[in-house]
UniProtKB/TrEMBL annotation:
Pfam families documented for this protein: TauE (PF01925)
Subcellular location: Cell membrane
GO cellular component terms attached to this protein's record: plasma membrane
Membrane topology: Multi-pass membrane protein
Keywords on record: Cell membrane, Membrane, Transmembrane, Transmembrane helix, Transport
Protein known as: Probable membrane transporter protein
Family: Belongs to the 4-toluene sulfonate uptake permease (TSUP) (TC 2.A.102) family.
Transmembrane segments: 12-38, 45-65, 71-92, 99-118, 130-156, 163-183, 189-211, 223-241
Chief place of localization: membrane
């Protein structure tokens, strides 16, 4: 399915906005970008495309915030997430699209609830706790790419802020997306259409990340969080309704 020029410009603009917000807040890329992709392509095409976009976003965050990375958190999170990301992604490739759409919508709304419940950061904990956190998140993100928001309380509770928060989450996202792409490729979920639109978004994901870095210290993160939560709720309800139709 080829998009019109207008649809393509909308997709590019959305990708730029999503990467910008992600660079400032550490999340929100999938929340903003995935609903637009699902609208145009359906969920089983949209998910591999957004995986390529997240790969670019994660890599650019690692470069931009490379001096702030917390390597112990990355190591433990990766050890837990890799095998369970493979399992979750495999389940995505064999599940019914309607069921996946409802699951996606539910996760979006649950993520907002979690962010509101954890208005204060969790108490400090050791980096080794990212092993089970990574395992749980790996499985969930394999099924639905829109669950990154539920990680925020844990990384904040661990003590990461600003560049360390955004960069460390970005590296973890990058590693997970590489794993997902390997599974998608093995399951023939990377046709030319996915690669075309996925690669089209890469330079705009990078540009959005660089732009976000320049104003990270000057903007109100609270405003971005509220914007993301509104998008999450609207998109979540939309996906639940679409999946039940």
């Amino acid at each position: 399915m080829a998009l019109t020029w207008l649809d393509t410009y909308i997709l590019i603009g959305t990708a730029l906005l999503a990467a910008f917000v992600g660079s400032v807040t550490g999340g929100g890329v999938t929340i903003i970008l995935l609903p637009v992709l699902v609208f145009h392509f359906g969920i089983q095409i949209a998910m591999p495309i957004v995986t390529l976009a997240l790969l670019a976003a994660g890599a650019s965050r690692v470069v931009v915030y490379r001096r702030d990375l917390d390597w112990p958190a990355v190591l433990w999170f990766t050890l837990g997430s890799l095998p369970f990301t493979c399992v979750g992604t495999y389940l995505f490739t064999i599940a019914a699209p309607d069921l996946l759409t409802r699951i996606l919508g539910s996760f979006l709304i649950v993520a907002v609830v979690c962010q509101r419940l954890f208005t204060k950061p969790l108490g400090g904990f050791a980096a080794a706790w990212f092993l089970p956190i990574g395992a749980t998140f790996g499985f969930l993100t394999g099924i639905s790419a829109a669950v990154a928001a539920v990680l925020a309380p844990f990384f904040l509770g661990y003590g990461l802020r600003k560049g360390a928060f955004v960069g460390t989450m970005g590296l973890n996202v990058f590693i997970i997306q590489v794993t997902k792409l390997a599974v998608f490729g093995n399951r023939d979920f990377l046709p030319p259409l996915v690669l075309l639109y996925g690669l089209l978004l890469v330079p705009f994901m990078i540009a959005g990340t660089v732009l976000g870095k320049k104003i990270l210290e000057r903007v109100s993160e609270r405003l971005f969080v509220i914007m993301i939560e509104v998008v999450m709720i609207v998109a979540g309800l939309n996906f639940i309704i679409r999946g039940a139709a």
